[in-house]
Specification:
It contains one helix and seven strands. It is an alpha+beta fold. The longest helix has 25 residues.
């Protein structure tokens, strides 16, 4: 009988821990900035131009304009990749991003822009 109460106490502890973790995760604040295929929190991307280089030893690049200033911008061009390339602000709201060397243009399937 004592063993039965130990198992019930353990199960109750697991349930309480689960709900506490769930409540914490639900209350987490979003990371400031914007990411997405459509406008999420204020940046619009326009004037997208690609510099596409064939061959694994050459870099490709993308440049674009944002509709307002940002302090940090990164891009990804392959939806299945978690790698993002850093961008450089060239003038005002114009950004230039060198895509990681070795990425073939045939692999490009999206333009994901993260701005902060």
């Amino acid at each position: 009988m004592h063993r039965f109460f130990q198992i019930q106490a353990l199960a109750l502890t697991v349930v309480i821990a689960f709900y506490a973790i769930h409540a914490y995760a639900s209350s987490a604040q979003p990371i400031p900035g914007a990411e997405g295929i459509i406008t999420i929190s204020g940046w619009n991307v326009s004037g997208v131009r690609y510099r596409l280089e064939e061959g694994p030893s050459k870099d490709s690049a993308v440049e674009f304009d944002l509709d307002k200033p940002a302090t940090m911008v990164k891009v990804s061009v392959i939806s299945s990749s978690a790698l993002f390339s850093d961008c450089t602000n060239t003038t005002g709201t114009h950004w230039y991003c060198v895509i990681n060397s070795g990425t073939g243009i045939s692999e490009f399937d999206e333009l994901r822009v993260i701005a902060k």
